TrEMBL record:
One of its GO terms (molecular function) is DNA binding. It comes from the Bacteria. Residues 7-50 form the Arc-like DNA binding domain. This is Arc family DNA-binding protein. The keyword DNA-binding applies. The keyword Zinc-finger does not apply. Keywords: DNA-binding. Transmembrane segments: none annotated.
C-alpha cells in the first residue's frame, strides 16, 4: 500500500485460529508481501470473485427453490470441487 492509502486505511482487529498467523506469514513471505498486504490481497480477490448467487440474507432463497439454487451453485464449482462434494455426500 502507498503511504496515502495507509494513512487513510481503517484499522480492524481480527482474531485468527492458532496456526493461521504462521501460515499467513509464510505465504506472505513467498509472495514478497507484508502479512497485512497478503490478507488485503486475498480479501480483495475473494470479494471480486464473490458469486452473484450468494445469498445476502437468511431468506434470500425462496422456500421451494432450495434445490434449484443448490444445483446452480454446484454447476459453478470446479470439477474437482464437484467430485469432493459428491464424495462427502456418499
Amino acid at each position: 500500500m502507498k503511504q496515502d492509502a495507509t494513512s487513510q486505511a481503517q484499522k480492524f482487529v481480527v482474531r485468527f485460529p492458532c496456526d493461521m498467523r504462521g501460515r499467513i506469514a509464510e505465504v506472505a513471505a513467498l509472495n514478497h508481501r507484508s502479512m497485512n498486504a497478503e490478507i488485503v490481497a486475498r480479501l480483495q480477490h475473494s470479494l471480486a470473485n464473490w458469486s452473484t448467487l450468494e445469498p445476502t440474507t437468511a431468506d434470500a432463497i425462496p422456500v421451494g427453490r432450495e434445490e434449484q439454487v443448490l444445483l446452480q451453485r454446484f454447476r459453478l464449482l470446479s470439477p474437482a470441487r464437484q467430485r469432493a462434494l459428491l464424495g462427502l455426500l456418499d
